[in-house]
Amino acid sequence: MIVAWRLRGPVLGLLVAGAGLALGCASRPPAAPPGAPRPSAPPTAEPAVRSRVPLAAAPSRASRTVELGRSVRGRPIEAVVFEGGSRCVLILGGIHGSEPSSADLAGRLVEHLKGRPQDLAGKRVLVIPRANPDGLAAGTRWNARGVDLNRNFATDNFEPCARNGRAALSEPESRALVRAIALYRPSCVVSVHAPLNCIDADGVDASYALAREMARVSPLPVNDLPAMPGSLGSYAGDELGLKMITYELDRKKTPGNSPAAYLDSHLPALLAAIGRG
Ligand SMILES: [Zn+2]
């Protein structure tokens, strides 16, 4: 399926700024029209490669860790990139620091894919386990400036305020995620949260079809949550037209299951997103 990039406003500026650096998961967006707004912090460089797997690994199955940016407190915001093909799927956790199970699940996915590269299903997979490292360290929903990063994206429904950010993309963590999308051009984004116990889709019809496919192999049901202002779901799903899933874990680890078994019970849904994303 061809990704429909519907670009406008600061979103356009960011993506165009990143176009020359794109690592290529989809076709490039059109050039910016004259007078298009510029982003507050456009991507300026390819993220630094922090480590590589041993050279003995097959190049097409290699993974590497890249730094997308730094948090307010200077913590690295890292992505693990698995090279399985040209089409890209982005999966992230921990955008709300009070939801550590989401970071745990994304981290578990990283370990799984390192051991089973065949589950890349011919995709480039980008995993960002800790999108809000300051919030995760402090156990708070917000970043270190008290901003809800999942309300800080440049969307039509963005609502400026202290909690959402005085301006869209005012926070380095939200800019790092937009940078990742601009550089890697995912066709599908899955953001793991907790504890609303559902799989929520945004944007294009294909998002809803994917949510149903994921629910077939997940403990979670499909539930269409309201679109929140300035959320990643509104940005990726409604503004960019990507397949967009918000994967809401339940409040507590399933009683009787070990934490590892709990996380593993959600891996099939994430692998379904990789396969169909
Ligand atoms: Zn959340």
Bound molecules: zinc ion
Report the order of strands and helices.
HEEEEHEHHEEHHEH
User: Quick one: CATH superfamily?
Assistant: Zn peptidases
In percent terms, what proportion of residues is strand? Answer: 15-25%
Q: Count helical runs.
A: 7
Separation of the first and last Cα atoms: 10 Å
Write the layout of secondary structure elements.
Blueprint lengths: L8 H11 L28 E5 L10 E8 L5 E8 L4 E6 L6 H16 L8 E5 L4 H6 L33 H13 L3 E6 L4 E6 L1 H11 L16 H8 L3 E6 L10 H18 L1
Helix pairs in contact: 1-4, 2-7, 5-7
The site of zinc ion has 3 residues, from loops.
Which characteristics define this entry?
alpha/beta, Aminopeptidase, 7 helices, 18% strand, disordered N terminus, binds zinc ion
How would you describe the overall organization of this protein?
The protein is an alpha/beta fold and 277 residues long. It has a single domain (9-37, 44-50, 61-276), classed as Aminopeptidase, CATH 3.40.630.10. The chain is built from seven helices and eight strands, in the order H-E-E-E-E-H-E-H-H-E-E-H-H-E-H. The protein has helices at residues 9-19, 100-115, 133-138, 172-184, 205-215, 232-239, 259-276; strands at 48-52, 63-70, 76-83, 88-93, 124-128, 188-193, 198-203, 243-248. An eight-stranded mixed β-sheet has the order 1-2-3-5-4-6-8-7. Helix 2 (100-115) packs across helix 7 and helix 5 (205-215) packs antiparallel against helix 7. It is globular and about 45 Å long. The chain starts with 8 loop residues before the first helix and ends with a helix.
